Every structure is written in C-alpha cells, then in structure tokens.
Give the backbone structure.
Amino acid sequence: MRKNFFSPYATWKNFFKKPTTTRYPKEDITFFDKPGASPTYRGMHTNDHELCIGCGTCEDICPTSAITSPGKKGVVPVIDYGRCCFCGFCVDVCTSRSLSMSRDYIYTIESPPELQADDEVDMKYNSFLIKPDSTHEENPGHQTPDEDSWLDLIRTPMEEIPAEERIKSFREFVKGFTREQAFKEASRCVECGVCEETCPAKMEIPKYIRAVWEDDLEKAVDIMYNTNPLPGICGRICTHKCETVCSISLRGEPVAIRWLKRYAVDMLEDDKYRELMKKEIPENGGTAAIVGSGPSGLSAAYYLRLAGYKVTIFEALPQAGGMMRVGVPKYRLPHEAIDRDIDYILSLGIEIKLNTRVGKDITLEKLHDQYDAVYISTGLHLGRKLGFEAEKLPFVAQAIDLLRKVTLGEAVEVPEKVIVIGGGNVAMDISRTMARLQLEKYGKVGVTTLSLESEEELPCDLEEFIESREEGVTVMPSYGPKDILMEGDKVTGAEFIRCLSVFDSQGRFSPKFDEQEKITLQADMVIESIGQASDVSFIPEDLLEKLEKTERRTIKVDENQQTSLPWLFAGGDLTSGPDAITGIADGHRAAKGIDEFLRSRK
Amino acid sequence: MLSSIPYTELRELARKDDCIQYELFFGPNFPGMHGNFGYILDVAGSTILRVRPNPGLLHRGFEKLMEQKLWFQNLSLIPRICVVDPDPNEVAYCGAIEKILGAEIPERAKFIRTITLEMSRMTSLLMGMGALGGMMGLYTVMYRMMDDREGLLSLFEWLTGARIYHIYNLPGGVRRDIPDGWTEKLEDVLKQLESNIVEWDRLMFENPVVQKRLSGIGPLTQEQAVNWGIGGPSLRATGFKADTRKDDPYAAYPYLDFEVPAVGGGDALARAVQVREEYILAISLIRQALKKLPEGPFKLDTGNPLKFIVPKGDAYNRVESSKGEYAYHVVSNGDLKPYRVSVRGPSLPGGLALCHEHLPGMLIDDVAIWMASLAICPPDFDR
C-alpha cells in the first residue's frame, strides 16, 4: 500500500463541500413529487371506511396482533401503534383495497381532556387503539395493486363437458372438483364470514370450507346439515349469493363455494354418510303435516323430525322434490343427487305420501284436524301468461309445464322451430332442454330466446347465458313480444318490437318500446317463460279470506313463517324467493316456529 | 506510555503481579461494545488475563417465537435478527422453505434477490468499516461511511418501503417488482460510492496510523480459522478462499462472473483490507446483475398466506452474509407454522469461542478493534 505523509489530510477538501446528507446523487432531497419519504414507504395506516367491508383478514395476518376488530368481525378494524411493526402485511392481504399506508411516520394526537385525569384507566387503554383514519390519505405510501396482492385471486377452473358433447344428452356436464382441485380452491378462502351473513340459510360456510381444506369431509357435511339438509342439491343449483359477496371477488374471482359444497357431499362415502345421519331422535308425540316436498318442505320436515315430531309430507306429483325435480333440467341437477339427499332425510322416519294432492285427495281442514300444525310450501307451479289470443292453442306453451312433462317422461311436442319468450333462468332451462330434444329429433337446434332486458341486465345467471349460446340457442336481448301469429289453429311465428328500457328511473318495471323497429320470427311453437305464480286453490275460500296478505298478494307470514292462522305455517316460493336456498331457510325457520308454537300451546 | 513497552514484555509484566488485578465488565456500558453483549474480563493493569463471554442480554426468543407464527408472519420477525444486514436472513429462511417445497423461483426474483443481498452487504460493510474507524477514535470514517450508506438505504426504502426492516423476500420470490427509475438511481449511487473509495484509502487504508494500529491484532492462520469455524471475510482474510456464493450457489450467483478476493495475512489489518475488497466485489456483482436482469414474473403463486402450508420435511439453507455464513435450519411438520427454526449466526464462533484464544494477553483498548475487525455482531448468537 502506498504510503503518503499527506494522506490523512487529503480529506480536508471536503471542508469546502456542501455539508448535507444526500439521498441520491445529483438530486436534492425532493427527488420524488413530494418531499419526504419514498412513494412506497410503509408509514402510518389509512383505511378508506367506504370501501372497508370489515372482513378481518388484516387482523388474521397481523404478526403482532396490533389490528383488532372491536367487538366482532364486520366492523372497521382499529390499530394499536404500540404493537404495530409496520410490516405492511395487512395492506398486502386487504381484500377490499381499502387499507394502505402513508408516507407519514410521525403521528401525534393531543390527549383528549378526559384522558388527562389519571383515574380513567380503562378509557386511556381504549384510546390507545387508533382507527386507521383518512388524515394521511393525501400522502399515500405503500399500496398493494391486485397483481402484488397476497390473496389467491384466480379460481380453480371447473372441468366441464364441452358444448358439442353435452348437448347430445341430459347428462350432468359440470364434472365437479377432484381432491387436489378442492384443496386448492378451499385454500383460497380467508374465512371472513361475509358469505355467512348473506346466505339466506346462514350456512357456516367458512367452517365447512376449512373442513374441506383439512380433508375432513364428515365434519364438513355435518356442519352443512346444521343449516341445510339438502347440500347435494344446493351444491349444484344454489343461486350462490355467497359467491356474489365473497370478499375475494372484490379483487379477483370469488371462492367457488357452491362447487366445494358439492365436492364434500359427493366425495363422502355412503357408509360414512349414513353413519352421520344416524341421529338420536327424542320422540315428543307432536305431529306435523307438510304440503309440498320441495326444498322448503323437506327442510321443514328434517328439522321438525330432529326435534321429535312425527312428520308427514303430502306431494301431488309422483316423485318427491318439487321444483328441484320438475323445474330443473337433469343436466344441471341429476336425479341421483336429488334422490340421495331426499333418501337421507326420509331415512330419519319421515312419511311421504306421493300422488296426494291436498284440496283434491285430502282437504286442508282434514290435515288441520289430524295434525298439530301444517306447513304449506307448494311453490310456484303456474306459468304467467302474456294475454295474447293465440294462447288458447296447444302450440303456445308454458315453460314450467313443459319442463315438468319432460322430467316426468311425458310426451312433448318438439317442433323444428321454437321461440322462447323470457330471459330468466327458466327461459334458459327450457331453451336448452328444447335444444337437446331438437338435436335428437332433427339433428339441429332451432331455438330463439328473446328477452325484454338487454344483455347486461339479463336476469339469468351469466354462465347460463353463455352456455345457452354455446349450445346453439340464439339469444336475442332487448326485444319485447308484440303478438303471437297464428293461422287457424297453427302457430306460425311471433312479432317482436325493440325494447329500449325495462325499468323507469325509480327502478319500477315499466318497459319502453320502439314501435318502429319490429321483427317477425317464424316458428312452430312459442314458449312463454315470463314468470310463475302460485296455485293456492287448495286452500278453502273461507280460510283464504281469513289469511292476511302482503301488498304483493302473497300470504303474509311473521319471522317464524307463521300465518295469521296460528296452526298454519307457510314458506318457500309461496312467500319469498324464488330460489331453493331461501326455501330451505324458510323451512328451517318454520320448523323452529312450529316447535315453539306447539310447546307454548301445551 | 504503555504502548512504548513491547507487547511480550507487557505480558510478562502483568504476570509478575506488578499491576493490580481486577475484574472488568466490558459490556453495553462500554462505548466500544457492539450491541447488548458483554465480556467479563480479568485484567491486570491494561492486560487481559482471562475472559468470560456473557451473552443473554439480547435474548429475544426469536426461534421460539417463530414456532408460534404462520410461515408468512415470521417474515416480519426475521430481518430483526440482524439489523445491519437483514436480507441474508430473509433469503435464508425463504430459501429453506423453497427447498422443502421443491420450488424454483422465477429468474427475475433470483436477480432481484442478488441485487438486494449485495446492497445489504454493502450497507453492512460500510457500517463495519465505520465502526472499525470509530473504535480507533477515527470518527470521521464513521461519519463518511454513514453518509455513503444513506444512498443505499434510500434506495432500499424506495424498493421495499423501509430503510432497515425491508421484509422484502417471500417464499417464492420477492414482494414487489423494481419500480421505474430505480435501477438508474442505483447506478448513480454505485458510481458515487465507487469514487469515494479513493478517499477511504487516503483516510483509512493508506493511513500509517491506522496501519500501525491494526497490524498484529487478532492474528489467525488459515488452519486456525478453519478449525475455529470462522467464516466470511475473516476467513478469506487469512487467504483461504471459501465463500457460500461460490461453494453452494443460490439466487443468481451462478450466472455472475466473479472471483472471491482473499487478501491473506490474517490480522485485523488484513481483515480491514479484505472488507474493502469485498465491497468492491459487491459493486461489481450488482452491476453484473443489473445488466443481466431478466424480464418476467417476480414471484411464484404460493396461494393464500393464511393457509400456506410447507410439506413435512426439513432443509438447511446457507447464505453468505457480510459477516460470514448465515444458515437457517427449518423443520416443518406439514403444518401452518414451522415446527422448528434454528439460526446459525456467523459471529458465534468468533464471539463466544475464539475470544478465549485471542483476548488473554490483549490490551483492553484492543478488544473493541478486535471485535470490529472480526465483525462480531452479538444479535447473531444471542437471538
């Protein structure tokens, strides 16, 4: 090494330099747009209270337990800066993009005067918890864009039979998860419980998803039966309101809750399932009659039976299941799945009387005499009509009637060209059913489905719409029916006019049409699918008059599904919905209500 | 006065009981001690006769804490094991998890890890050199090094969001991509730091006072260093070429062209010069990595961190830090939390074992220099 006497003194030249610490060479301290820390700095937290859904994921990941939700989940979290280590994990797992960190690193607040008194120890402790507030919002720091998020935002793809294959038969085309796929999908759940709040039946979704993830299917199915006795059916056709609100869906695709439910039920072996259903039932001598064996009736029967009642179900059709059986095509809900769920319920010792129409084979008064309480859940089996003259012809049909006939194996006419009026799930169901029948008969599909609503506001599920188009159904949104054309007693087609808007500014149904834009379609058959109505003709007129009604002319029930006649309970699509899970929830509530009512009467 | 007496004579003098013998607690109260650690020294006059290391003042229970937190939650804990050089800890832990998972991280993540590791090494070496200067009373070095370090810390803040506790590496990659304009700023900073080396040479390495002060303190032969388990720059200062970056390559080191410097000599002066060489090597490695930085993803999809599971198994992962070899032994039971995480700190053999060999006979004023030159950092072994 070079030795130089002056070496130690050479640094004196720094004496003439600017005596500052520089952040970056050639730049002064305000390199970034704003003076201060860098744009990604992990400083004080900010939380946009409008966006925050209170999922509590930040609380779960926080390594120092600095973040807490006061009371329960579902409220805006608070942070204790005395514990925080400023790692920023909470921001990286935030489901709603509400949480971020600012570039501020000094946070002082003036002690409120009440804290200055020493005796208020509790208050002092609580005030140490600071809500991440918005005062730092103008100075944003660490934020997590979706691509950096730690959450698993992409759904495990579900295998399906391709459209050209599945249209050839009524075989179920959604294959269901394999074990690996189910694990992967279940691991995406952050167990926030937002879904649980939304589910009409209040199913304990995070719990059973965790059980699936832990590979404990028995536990998962057991949890499901706490609130829903038809998990195999719901795992296929539920309207999955839970997935719509899933906190993961705010950044990515929601957790496939419905498919996970189906996986747990399908994969649990029969003997274990039977073991699970062996329940000790305390007989209490009470009796209950249930009219209709749809989801709501079955649910009520199951929970009443568990409570010890002797339950009898009366079903007008030759098979149990109600709308699940006769309203849903087999490719969406195979009958084996329905049978499995129903068999397990009936195995508890519930009696079912098929081909017994209340009002015809047995009267409601007689049920009232024979049983302590009656639950009616007959559903919506009447199709609404448009009121055209041609409706008297046999080739103008109701979707719900046709679906029932196809399911029960009755003969239906399958012409070459069919028009379906309606844009809901039932319209898609009948379109796809007719498409399958046509393909079998003619080798080609000739179904045109027209709906009042535009493509964005179609009332059916998006996947139904996409799958219908894949299967060759021509879906034409924004057209309203003008008239059904006929020649003698034959249908020749229908006229449609352009629909400009369906709802008015207050959100009421009030369609506006453009009369100029008219199209005429040729067809041999027109199917109406514009909604369904209930058939309450089985209730005698004097009773019907006594029953209180709601503004929408449905039977009025209280929170226990009890009508104004104390012994009569009603639920399912008759009073709410229409969908299966709401019916199941109604049935559960009715069972509790009947139990409460009969206990109080004793 | 004392320094005019030859070293060997001094030793003899002390043994003859001509001086008063007393016990000195050379602990956190001493300005030259690094961190919360202490040596209990039996001293005669100024000469040390016997030494008892007294660790435990800094024990933070990291390893046990890690068993009680999720795999991802531990990431916030790990950089705190070594404050000046946190990145090797993160990479060692994440690398061990990746080994158990059998996962190969994306190329870009490897290069980004290499860049941050070398930047972290530079900040740590600057701190080390500054400390060495400080121990000799040459505080100008400390101030200048801290100034240089600031540029790197600012870059860390921009990239990771924090100056010291970066928490930047994840199992499967890094937490975020390099921001626009960051690499250009890094080039600028490197250029400036490189130009400053001349000044350090004048200030420190060519300074006759420093050379005289450092030479002869804590001499180590190659054989001794290997037997004692000393690693890193201290081992290479004896002329022994051993470096985890070469011997057990990780991150993007296999793609980089470099020769590990080995100064030779084995005393405190050689170790100081070795640090200088390592620093120059780090600059070159960063430049190479920046040039070869590939495009592409910067992390693997590891799924929901709340349900992140490492399969049953264990892995021992080594990373070369600025002080030597950092290693993590991670044992997983296939659970949400680690079964055991054991940390091997590089200063452990030096700070707890070699002191028995080196310190007796040394003057009290040399202890701090000896510690700084061997880069003994108590948090390493006092976790």
